[in-house]
């Protein structure tokens, strides 16, 4: 079992502020294990657990107020997106004077897909997004394995590459055939699978809705709906473009990334590290893996993460706004990082405070007064 102390501390902090804390993240990323860790170490009094994938537990909560109103201590409710009407009951219970209960709710969909959590519990709920395992949690010595296998614990901790690949294939099938219908979304699994696999080939590219629609045989609106669905279930990141007030034609569509590198490799049919090394998507795969690692290390909100591109002239893979500073990242799969003309232009036009070239190495060294080469195994020194 891998420790996740930063998340445990965040749960503790959120309970200091709110009577309800929601841990949201993709299925199998470790939400249930994290909730158990928190209950074992920090909960005072009794702990009651409900798993809404269990028919018996769902039956117990058919009359939720009766089932919950006499409970004390900590109540953990797993897969809460299966019972969206529950949030109104939680509001009534936590609004009681000197309420004796705190609720830790776990969900496999974002606030976009379970808006009742924000609407019914406004001011009463703190949200935490739990990601699959990060480099900070597994250690830099496991960086290449994390890149290939991805961060889902059953994949990362699998006994062999073959076992990890088999788990990821089953995960994709279960997500399409069970998890999406469980959210009340009526999309044929095969259609969504084909779309997801097409997105894997767009990984690291600017989204062209019309081109994708022609390839997929669907309207632009359908493409946007499918893309938003995969984003709201934590499968895809839509990285927003930054628009600077300059007289240059800047890209205005988002860039698309499959958030977990292991899932990306499965969608591309890459079952081993050797297969990845000779695949044309090696560079984009590294870019997506590094990008997710940087965002997690800086604990950056989606609204503070951008890319920037000027048609035919310059681009920047990632710009973070942190503490009022603009930090740029150019991500390269190379063993000899150097300053490119594109990065110089980005530094000038965007007025970056500093910039890094992130590469798969172990060292950090300056390339100019404001630009450094940053080995991925030293990324943990950034954003601290």
What brief labels describe this structure?
about 375 residues; alpha/beta; Rossmann fold; 2 domains; 17 helices; 14 strands
Quick gist of this model?
This protein is of the alpha/beta class and 384 residues long. The protein has helices at 5-17, 31-42, 55-60, 64-68, 86-94, 116-120, 135-138, 143-149, 153-156, 161-182, 189-202, 209-216, 220-232, 261-267, 273-277, 282-298, 341-350; strands at 20-24, 47-51, 73-78, 101-107, 125-129, 205-206, 236-241, 255-258, 305-310, 314-322, 325-331, 354-359, 364-366, 371-375.
Write up what this structure looks like:
The chain is of the alpha/beta class. It folds into two domains: 5-129, P-loop containing nucleotide triphosphate hydrolases (Rossmann fold, 3-Layer(aba) Sandwich), CATH 3.40.50.300; 135-381, no CATH class. It contains 17 helices and 14 strands. The strands form two sheets. A nine-stranded mixed β-sheet has the order 6-8-7-9-10-11-12-14-13, sandwiched between helices. α1 (5-17) crosses α2. The model has no long low-confidence stretch (mean pLDDT 93).
The profile of the biggest β sheet is: 9 strands, mixed
Radius of gyration: 22 Å
Q: Averaged pLDDT, please?
A: 93
Q: Please mark out the parts with pLDDT under 50 across 5 or more consecutive residues, or reply none.
A: none
**Widest β-sheet, arrangement of strands:** 6-8-7-9-10-11-12-14-13
Taken as a percent bin, the fraction of beta residues is 15-25%
The tally of domains stands at 2
The secondary structure category is: alpha/beta
